[in-house]
Amino acid sequence: MTSEPTLQAYSVSDDEHAMVVFGYTPQHAARLGGSHFGLEAEDVITDRAPEFDEYAAAGHVTGMQYLAHGWWMTCTQCQREVSRDRADELATDIEVGLSDEAPMEPQEHAGHLYCSLACREADLAERARRIQARADAEQATLARFPGVTIVDVHSLHTTPHVVFQLPGTDGWTGQLGWTVGQDILTASPAAHEAYRTYQEALK
Ligand SMILES: [Zn+2]
Known about the structure:
Helix content: 25-40%
Strand content: 15-25%
Largest sheet: 4 strands, antiparallel
Oligomer: single chain
Bound molecules: zinc ion
Distance between the termini: 79 Å
Shape: flat
Number of helices: 5
Structural class: alpha+beta
């Protein structure tokens, strides 16, 4: 009688970072972990990590679970190194006045790990700001260029940049770029004709 192959937990490391993957064999785990780091299976270090086997059914380990097993993580917002040990050490240092660093109270939200509630709130506020900036940019584009289709909005920076498609066109020859509020449009030479046609139609 042969038993069903079971997924087991392996820590896979590229020397700098490590993660837990679930594989049927060490080679399988090395391939999975390697592809995550953009490396070949033979370029990562793979070790059995039985303490994570209990998460095999879930298929992944959450940030808080890594911390519970003594690993450290990076805060999504401030990039501070977060671990249980560091949190304890810091709590003591703060108590005796040896550190003025913000207290470390790890938390997780939507797959992101944060060192504190303050970082979580700052990150959520920034994400909300970007979503709003994106919506505003789309609205401004449609107000100025009626009938176009929004292709992409780059809203990481203060002034969003919108790529849109002229009506009745297909592909990049009908695409233009606009930094919201500016008088300049960017377009490939092939799109110039399409833009003239569009402007004529608006008159
Ligand atoms: Zn933080």
